[in-house]
Specification:
The protein has 2 domains: 292 residues, 3-Layer(aba) Sandwich (Aminopeptidase); 110 residues, Alpha-Beta Plaits, CATH 3.30.70. The two termini are 32 Å apart. With 409 residues, it is of the alpha+beta class. The longest helix is centred in the last third of the chain and has 21 residues. A hairpin with a 3-residue loop joins β12 and β13.
Amino acid sequence: MSDLAAELCDRLTRYCAIDSQSDDDSPSQPSTAIQLNLARLLVDELQAIGAADVRLTDYGAVLATIPGTAPGPAVGFLAHMDTAPQFNATGVKPRVIRGYNGGAISFPDDPALVLSPETSPHLADKLGHDIVTASGLTLLGADDKAGIAVIMAAAHLLLASDAPRPTIRIAFTPDEEIGRGVDKRLPADLGAAFAYTFDGGAVGEIEYESFSADGAVVTIDGVSIHPGYARGKMVNATTLAARLLSMLPQSTMTPEVTADREGFLHCTEMTGGSSRMVLKFILRDFELDGLAHKGEVLRSACAALQTAEPRARIDCAIRPQYRNMRYWLEKDMTPVDLARDAARALGLDPVSVPIRGGTDGSRLTEMGVPCPNLFTGMQEIHGPLEWISVQDMARAAELMLGIAARAAR
């Protein structure tokens, strides 16, 4: 393992062991105080490697500067500190499988769980790599602690070198997984002409197109009464919630049946009881008219349910989350082209595929800081099979160094 790979492996395993899960139901900023545990550690480590202007903002982002040694536009590099709320992220026990031999990978805390090239095809290309996974009961959190490790390791190398580079700005954000990673103050505080998120998957991916996204909350208030005396009087909110889901296009518009450029309408959570049910949805599409159509599908189903049961009260609230970064980046592909040139210089074949999700770069781009997304190597994210190759992370760190060098030219 090279010195760079060893540093990346150490950083990733240390960062992943720190619980930093965000919480969409929390109104605080950041949404969970535990994210600040990682933030404070990163402040200390940035100061230790010699970064300038290191601070933790009151909205929970860590900011730092790598001073420039040559003229050029200030370039930002970002990653997010929080891990996804969809799966257990408490008690993560990262483990390193050195020199992967190509077989199935088992998990000590869940013997029934198996990771193999059959379930994760990218694994077949990682013979001899050092693979990091969790122990079987949690996600790993490489999304996006791999991005943090990549930026930190590359920053360490940049600060130890006088090689030409413009001013580099670093930001580690909270709450990306719940769509709150980019505070309205961040673009000005970042002070970059353009930026990159390290929040992507396979080696070579340089992404400038993401979903456009809305979130929806449907609240169903029924009529509550003692069930023994309910005939003709009770309106069961749980029954109406089930009926609403059955009215939506399950065979054409859910994540399980969509791929490529198809969007979806996804119920992420149902809570409540017979008197009140709250259903949360995410709406995703690459085009705004497709996103609007999905919102209309949900509103129409709610209206039809309300008409069928006038004694209930059904509210459907839809709010914007982020928009496809392509709408802005396609007008000026300079940061994308710069990253592609740096990738080719490393012998990589840059690939641009639409992100079936979003990044902080989606919001930053919309807010005036063009911000494509770069690979880290992470795979099978948001679940117990999550894994990453340390050698793939090293390629990502090399890409950051290459972009910095080219920006100075």
